[in-house]
Specification:
The complex is a heterodimer of chains A (140) and B (253).
Chain A lengths: L1 H30 L3 H21 L3 H8 L2 H11 L4 E8 L11 E2 L8 E9 L7 E10 L2
Antiparallel strand pairs in A: 1-2, 1-4, 3-4
Chain B lengths: L1 H6 L1 H61 L6 H15 L5 E8 L9 E4 L5 E15 L4 E24 L2 E12 L2 E2 L2 E10 L2 E4 L7 E4 L4 E9 L5 E9 L4 E10 L1
Helix pairs in contact in B: 2-3
The chains are: A alpha+beta (140), B alpha+beta (253).
């Protein structure tokens, strides 16, 4: 009886072994995080920090209100770490593009592009509120 | 021996599978730690996002106070904050957010602003509002009540000494504060009272201003006035374009 069932038990054992390995894989997959996402989030955080830094004394709003696009590009280039490319678009409260010049320090040809959305209120007595969209990538 | 090995090969297979599962589990733990790191960066991102919203709320209040203190309507604060709330509502990338506000009203504040320029030696321009910011993020919903108070204060102390006859040298010590912290001003205009009119002090009065760099300034000028007391008015525009005025009556030292 035992000998007759030995083959079937082997099959069951092999099936159980496969099940153990497969369940371990399944559990692992559920926890897996794409490292690309983490990198992208870090890059977005760097971009947001740069905009916050410029905005802390109202400079960002002044550059945008005054249309000093080249100055804004130069300042952002200084604030962001070396090797980070950016491209920025400014919209008014009606979501119409405000910047009439490209505010960027290079092409974003990297696959990992981070995006930052930032509301910018000016400190000028004549109040204006803008939405800034900034794309960032590490220079390849 | 061979039979034993043959009989237990199934169990060995299961043990090997368990070892592999253990290895996978340890890998899982490592990946889980990485996930936790990512959660930290997500938390940081949402914190930065909230910080940015609060920063812009403060900017909007500074803008409104600059407007109102320079002669704008008091409703400007409400109108600007409404505009800001609409822009906040349009933000989508880091979740949806909404901000409700209530401008402060009490014995000093009217529609969220307080301009007190008549007190002797003290001038205050202030704006104050309470907010409730709600951010619906991917990972969390955050309700954050907070208040923003933007205040520019100027204090003046002064006296005069008689140079000769009716000619007097007036000396003022001015201190400027932004939110109770020493601050610099952008522009100052000094007036003295003569026959019920305010006369602007200029270079003909040998006006000299010393900036001590810590929000304290001293100003001195000479005038010819028969009166025993000298009324002085100091108007400043701080570095944020907020206007504030303080008056003082100077006596002889």
């Amino acid at each position: 009886m035992r000998r007759e069932n030995a083959g079937q038990i082997r099959v069951l054992e092999a099936f159980f072994a496969v099940l153990v390995v497969f369940s371990a894989f399944t559990v692992t997959t559920s926890f897996t995080v794409s490292p690309n996402n983490a990198k992208r989030e870090d890059l977005a955080s760097i971009g947001l920090q740069a905009l916050l830094k410029l905005d802390s004394d109202g400079s960002l709003g002044n550059y945008v209100s005054g249309g000093n696009w080249s100055l804004l590009r130069d300042v952002l280039d200084e604030v962001l770490p070396i090797g980070v490319c950016f491209n920025l678009t400014v919209y008014d409260d009606q979501m119409q593009q405000v910047n009439n010049a490209i505010v960027a320090n290079g092409g974003l040809n990297n696959q990992e592009i981070a995006f930052v959305e930032y509301a910018c209120a000016s400190r000028n007595p004549v109040f204006n509120c803008y939405t800034i969209h900034m794309w960032l990538a590490v220079a390849s | 021996m061979r039979r034993l090995r043959a009989n237990s090969s199934g169990q060995l297979l299961i043990i090997a599978a368990l070892v592999i599962a253990l290895l996978i589990s340890s890998t899982t733990t490592y990946i889980y730690e990485l996930t936790k790191e990512t959660d930290t960066s997500k938390t940081r991102a949402i914190n930065d996002f909230i910080l940015a919203l609060k920063q812009n709320t403060k900017n909007a209040i500074i803008s409104s106070l600059a407007n109102v203190s320079n002669g704008g309507a008091k409703i400007t604060l409400k109108s600007n904050l409404n505009k800001l709330s609409e822009v906040f509502r349009s933000l989508r990338h880091s979740g949806t957010c909404s901000q409700f506000f209530m401008v402060h009203n009490d014995s000093n504040y009217d529609s969220g602003t307080w301009l007190s320029w008549n007190t002797s030696g003290l001038g205050v321009s202030s704006a104050y509002a309470n907010f409730t910011l709600t951010v619906y993020g991917i990972t969390a919903k955050i309700d954050m009540p907070y208040a923003v108070n933007v205040t520019t204060t100027i204090t003046i102390n002064g006296s005069y000494s008689v140079v000769s006859g009716d000619e007097k040298q007036v000396t003022l010590i001015c201190r400027t504060f932004n939110e109770a912290q020493p601050a610099l001003w952008k522009n100052v205009t000094v007036f003295y009272e003569s026959g019920g009119n305010w006369v602007q002090v200029n270079s003909t009065n040998n006006l000299s201003i010393v900036n001590y760099g810590n929000g304290t300034y001293s100003a001195s000028f000479t005038i010819t006035l028969a009166s025993d007391t000298v009324g002085v008015s100091t108007c400043i525009l701080d570095s944020r374009d907020i206007f504030v005025r303080a008056n003082i009556t100077c006596h002889a030292v």
